[in-house]
Description:
Layout: E1 9-18, E2 21-28, E3 33-39, H1 46-58, E4 70-72, E5 79-82, E6 87-90, E7 96-99, H2 103-109, H3 113-132, E8 145-147, E9 153-155, H4 174-177, H5 180-184, H6 194-211, H7 218-233, H8 242-250, H9 264-276, H10 288-417
Antiparallel strand pairs: 1-2, 2-3, 3-5, 4-5, 6-7, 8-9
Amino acid sequence: MSLPEIAGHELKELIGSGNCGAVYKGVTAGGKACAVKILSSMAINRKELGAVMAKLLQMPHHQGVLPMEAGDVDRSPYHWVMPLVGNAIKDGQGRSQWRALTLEDSFMSRVPTAKAWEMIYEMADALAWLHRHSIPHGNLRASNVLIESDGSVRLSDMAQGWVGGTYNLVPTDHAVYLCPDQMENPGAVFTGSGFSWDVYAFGVLAFRLLTGHLPRAEAAWNEQVKLVQTRAAAGLPVQIDSAALIDAVRDQPKEQWSTTASNKWEQRRMDVISKALDLNENNRWRDMREVMREFEVMDAECLLEASQQQTVDERNKQKAKVRNLTLIATGLLVTLSIATMFAIFTLWRAIGAERTIAENKIAYDEVVATREEKIAAVAKDRDAKIAALSEERDMAQRQKLTADTNLQHSQVAVDQFL
Length: 418
């Protein structure tokens, strides 16, 4: 099968197809890989798409918008050249297939809430950038939000799909993502209503990212999918009943959140999504710039409150520190006072003890002196008695000696007399 010829590009292989055309992997004349979408003339609004192409080529680059590198809807083959996104993978039979992740894959795997909000902000910012440059997307569905390898999102296929002015466009999941007003009057996308309708489609994608469910008509959509699968298995022609889906959407005026906000700021963000999903255009955000501005104001208030709370917490910490230091200082002062009083009391007791010891020593010394005086007196009296007795003994001895002498003299005298 011969591939279409695009000036300055060489098409290599078919990597995807949809309502509005087929996508080929290609290379530029400079050897750069790219994706080339060959547009179906019956499924595009050439006039409006051409105007959007011109704006996209002039628009400054935004990370969240898949850039248009070249394109032409004036001469056949109508085409749109963009960067190549995705990777080659092997199917069950070992054949190589090109696979680009989209938001539909995120719905299947359910991303964490924090990552979901990150993706929602990225989509909002990218859409706001388009609206700032007067470009409605007009075809915002899960399959048109690409997921890069780093997890960031990029919008693609602007001004294609259910935008009016087409002759052969088969609706698929348009009715569950696009605003019912757009489904009924697609031509108004480029006459002013497209910006508000993009807001609604954004709300559907955000709601599904956060909850895993469609905000409206989910049961009707699942029923349509089963019906299509059954008819396809039987070899019968299949087509989504958009009218039934639109009726199911309108029959549910208010979306029902199956998740609860973790704090007041998440609740406010969810309220932004709810306002985006309002079926009444007059109650919705007018465009994504308003949505993004609301997010930015909200985030600024959140940061301010967090900063104020941090300041209050820091003050409370400092007060607690001062209180603790005061308690410690008071404790130390009390301890010092008690220690001082104890030292004074101990000193007073020591002085009293010294005084008592001194008094006791004096009394003891007096007692000792008295005892010594008594002992001295007794000793003196004893010595006196001993001296007296010694003198009496000596006198007695002298008297005995005298008597003995006298006796001897007497004996001598007697002897002489005899």
